[in-house]
Each structure stands twice: as C-alpha cells, then as structure tokens.
Amino acid sequence: MGGFFSAWFVSLIAALMALMVLSIPRRIVLLDDKLEIQCLLDITEFDIRIPEADESYPDDLTPQGIVEHISRAKAAAAAALCTEEEIVITADTMVFLDHERLGKPRDEADAFRILSLLSGRHHEVMTGMTVVRGDEVITHTEVTRIHFRQLHPEEIRAYIASGEPMDKAGAYGIQGGAALFADQMEGDYYNVMGLPVCRLAMILRQLKLPVWGVRV
Predict the structure, then answer these.
(1) What is the per-residue DSSP string for 33-57?
(2) pLDDT value at position 83?
(3) Quick one: average pLDDT of 11-28?
(4) What is the per-residue pLDDT for 44?
(5) Residue 211 domain-assigned?
(6) Could you say which of 92, 107, 135, 167 is catalytic?
(7) Of 48, 115, 122, 176, which residue is most buried, by most CB within 10 angstroms?
(8) Residue pLDDT, tens place only, 110-163
(9) How many structural domains are present in the chain?
(10) Distance (Å, rounded) from C-alpha 135 to C-alpha 60?
C-alpha cells in the first residue's frame, strides 16, 4: 500500500499553528508538493518533528482498533514536542486482508507471497488518525476497500524487480506501478497513500479551523 509515510505531523498556520509528524515520503508529498491541498486546508508551513512512540498493541484488537491505538500513541508522544497553541495530527496506515495485517515485505520472496495473496481479491487499507487541540482529542479510522485484478506471476516478479514494493505495507504503492493492479476502489484514494485528506479537513473544521478559508 502506500508506503510514503507513517508517524508525522504538520505545522498548520491558519489562525493557529498546527503540526504533523511525517516519517514516510508520501504524506510529505501530499502536504508539501501538492500545494493546492495545503492551500485548501490553510496550511502555510511545516515543522517536521519525529516523536518516540511505542507502536506495539494488544493482540486482541480489531484492525480498526490497531490503527487507532497506534495513532493515539503517536499523538501522546507528539504532545511533548508541541506547545498548547499547536494542533497535533498523527496517523497510522495499515493493509489488511481478511483481518490479517500485511506489513512491509521482508524480502522479494515475501513480496511475491503478499502480492499473490492480494491477486484477484479485495483488501482494506485503514488509517487511524488522531487530531489533538488542547484538551480536545478526535480519533477516526478511514477505510478504503480495494480489489486487485488477477495478477500473472511474471508481472508480479517484474513489479518486485522495480524495487517499489519493498518499503511499503502490503508490498505495493497505489500511486506507482500498482495502479495497474487495482481495478476497483471504494473510499478515499488519498487514504491509500496514507493521509485521508477529506476526513482531515472535516476534523479540522470540527475544531473550528478554516477549510477553503471558511469557518463553519
């Protein structure tokens, strides 16, 4: 799935300064290179701060519970790096097939195994996102359901040879070569890249921050 990020924050400056921690490139792409998204969310600058967060979780959690648990742990760790005026936004994105977590491949053989499992089947990408403003804490899980067409073993090998799958949960990047694999998608495309931008906008609006320059 989208590997470009993991624990991150952004410094939002609208009427307040906000902060988001980024450790994977894709989130940085979404909120740095795509300046139009920054503009719509009234984000004008970034501070990148990497907190020390415990990303372990209890064995009995559901997939949704896992990503929410980790995003809240990241938010708690981030709070120590922030002032009360800053808004902390943390997220954790994972890929699940039949409730089984598919992490980053250990090696090329593992990448082949994962992509073969996804071939011809539906899977889910979940992002747990926590936004903290002072004493207010909002956690939400965004779910995108994706179907891969039937993949030929040789095209799986060719994709692995590109190197793209090796640092990504689920062994694929939807914004890259795996765009040729996904023939159905239900939900937010940006969620698959690691940051559900629409949901983030709605949470910021809930916290009385402007979206499109408008407070509602």
Answers:
(1) I-HHHHHHTT---------------
(2) 77
(3) 38
(4) 54
(5) no
(6) 92
(7) 115
(8) 999 999 999 999 999 999 999 888 889 999 999 999 999 999 999 999 999 999
(9) 1
(10) 28
With respect to residue 39, please indicate whether it lies within any of the assigned structural domains. yes
Domain with residue 36: its CATH number is: 3.90.950.10
Rounded to whole angstroms, how far apart are CA atoms 174 and 190?
10
Rounded-to-integer distance, Cα 146 and Cα 118, Å: 10
196 within a domain of the structure (yes/no): yes
Mark whether 92 is an active-site residue.
yes
151 secondary structure, DSSP code: P
In a domain, 12, yes or no: no
Residue 175: CA count within 13 A, CB half-sphere: 16
For the question of whether the overall pTM of this predicted structure is more than 0.90, the answer is no
Range of the domain at 91: 17-206
* Straight-line distance from the first to the last Cα atom of the chain, in angstroms, rounded to the nearest whole number: 34
